[in-house]
Amino acid sequence: MKRIWLAAFALSMLAPLAAAQADEPMKGTFTAHQACPAFLSIRKQTNPGNVELVPEQSYRLLAANKPNPTYYRVEVEGAQPVERWVPVDCGEVKSADGTTVPAPTTPSQPAPGNNTPSGGGGGASYVFAISWQPAFCEGMPGKTECKTQTPERFDATHFTLHGLWPQPRGNAYCGVPQQDVEADKAHRWEDLPEPQLDPATRTALEQAMPGTASFLERHEWVEHGSCFFEKSADAYFRREVALIGQINASPVQKLFADNIGKEIETSDIRQAFDQAFGNGAGDRVRVACKRDGNRRIITELTIGLRGEVTDNASLATLIAGASPTDQGCTSGIVDAVGLQ
Fold this sequence. Notes:
Blueprint: H1 2-21, E1 24-32, E2 58-64, E3 71-75, E4 83-87, E5 91-95, E6 100-101, E7 125-131, H2 133-139, H3 144-147, E8 160-166, H4 178-185, H5 199-208, H6 216-223, H7 233-248, H8 251-257, E9 263-265, H9 266-277, E10 285-292, E11 295-306, H10 315-320, E12 331-333
Antiparallel strand pairs: 1-2, 1-5, 2-3, 3-4, 5-6, 7-8, 7-11, 9-12, 10-11
Helix pairs in contact: 5-7
């Protein structure tokens, strides 16, 4: 009898602990704003299949890991298992009624609208995100830039701009009015102010960033460009165009263009970066992939940079100053234009 009582007492003591550690159920959607790993285990950081969320794609929201969450559990179609944990600062949450849920405040994520710009000079660091547009359009066929894409267009065989993001993560919306922050988070990018660009910069940007057809440049300027060390939209985008131009004139672009419709290894991509931008450059490159039916396609490359991004900046020098990163997915198909 005493043994039974002790067992019951132990269970009663454990119950509050179990409740405290239980997930917090949530309903709604989670929209990714960058390519983030989707973990099976938060503690072990395991990621079977090297699954990543696709920027600007929405996922069914299932739970938070605790009342003031650091991770959300979402459903990633095509992943095995489909339920995965993603960092809260990877995107934003909308409740079941469509209301945007304020992001949890963490030390790495200051409150929107109250941030200060990242400093210029040799210590500034960035993530430079470039997309493979046909793969992006597999998941977003309704976008204007995807409806009009053809095999002959520049973005069918060249990398396109996603963004240049001052670090650390969460360094965003520097000095941006709250109404613009809210419009951006609600994806009302057409309501954002148009960045002031010289005609030549605008023309070059429209080729390098097809998403301008969906006001992507307005979003990028408000969220990330506002934290660029030089407070000029023209300088910010002009220098991004120059950086991706160096990639599109390199063996990295040739590797992709020569293998459209085929699978390539991440090790080959990193080797192409080494060839183009110096030994070790490939170690600063992360490859993002997504599932498309029974295929795994390459959607994006994120490249670490450190240094002053000037008009004549050398991409090789900026990459060399950054820290190495994990490789991301191990291989993927270079997608062709059109739904496969």
